[in-house]
Amino acid sequence: MGENPFSLQSNSFHVKQAERRRADLLEQAHSLREDPPVVLCLHSLSDNEGDWSILPLLPYMSRSFGRNSSWIVFLQEETNVNTVPLLQVLAKFDKDKEWFLGKPLYDEESTIIHHYAFAENPSVFKYPDFAAAWALSIPLVVRLADKVRDEPLKSDFTIDLKHEIALYIWDNGNGPRLTAVPELCTEPEDSPRAHHCATTLRKDYSYSALESIFIRDKTVQVSKTWEKDALFLEYYSDHADPSIPTINLGVPNTERGHCGKTFAILQRFLSNAVPNTKWLVVVDDDTLISLPRLRVLLSCYDPSEPVCLGERYGYGLSQGGYSYITGGGGMVFSREAVVRILNSGCKCYSDDAPDDMVLGMCLNALGLPITHSPLFHQARPDDYAKDLLAHQVPISFHKHWNINPVAVFNKWLRNDMKTPNELDKNAKTEL
């Protein structure tokens, strides 16, 4: 079967989830009397912050497994694997040739999160849905590893890893495109439609209570969407307005970046001016967020740990850079995380510095991991592949450009804990 690296995170909840998945894979191999696969957790392979972006790890994979394996199969911790059909699927392909296998996604329109790639016809380029698992044949791994060693990775920012990996493998037509494998699925594990699937999805979230502070400037869209679901909410501006009300933090508004304001919010969170709560959630005034769904997600995490949660981006990961939570989708911090950030002495180099990236540098210096969730979104629903959103229960979207924010909230984020396809199959929204 080859190797199965998990795209894993070092938070204790995710470690436990991955260990269960690893144990299941090994038990299946034992019952089949197959040689057990090597199951790797990516976060544990080295101290390199960029390991989650996978490409920097290819030389290690080539060196360690290039001679005695046939495939590298990448899983996420929520990906169930049925070993027998997966082996049958892989056997259909010549292991001595270059193969890039997965469940294909594509963009119907060019999108900012993919840097408007293939603007004339974005649907021609396919990239893998990581939740379904994806696979590289060893000959392809070996060649890509040589390429990584010989040519420095050029991209400064890592934004949507699955699209960027597909672009790197395709290499302007010099490498293989993604081959669709119908048996790699994102159906729920108990779905009657999953009878042919080698992979399915598992979800283990449970409910619990949550106290949080939610921030940024008040808008009419906030009051008509998620405001009513907040247990404790404050709005911040550069002047106090009791009619809203807003709170003046003593930091002027800036055209670009909000670092000064965000660090003032961190300090206020730990002060006696607000209730002692477990979680701090920082959102922009053009962020749409489902607080009930966020409560479900946060029930997985221990707030006594330094949890920093959101949509993870990377800057300069191949050159010793850092990860950060992109601010537009929402940044979530446990109280312990805020304490460690402020006690470290980390601060803004200017009030208008990018707050999310400065916080990323702080967390990197402290050795605190960022916990990624694909349920936070830096862009609008139309900026993501429909097949990707179809198996998600989204927590947030960002930007009000060319949309009706209330309609988008009602379609995608209203609290009934169903997938978008089930929410309202007849909903029509002008986006």
TrEMBL record:
It is found in: Endomembrane system; Membrane. Residues 66-145, 218-408 form the Fringe-like glycosyltransferase domain. Keywords: Glycosyltransferase, Membrane, Signal-anchor, Transferase, Transmembrane, Transmembrane helix. SUPFAM superfamilies: Nucleotide-diphospho-sugar transferases. Its main location: membrane. InterPro entries: Fringe-like_glycosylTrfase (IPR003378), Nucleotide-diphossugar_trans (IPR029044). One of its GO terms (cellular component) is endomembrane system. PANTHER family: FRINGE-RELATED. Belongs to the glycosyltransferase 31 family. This is Beta 3-glucosyltransferase a. It comes from Nothobranchius furzeri.
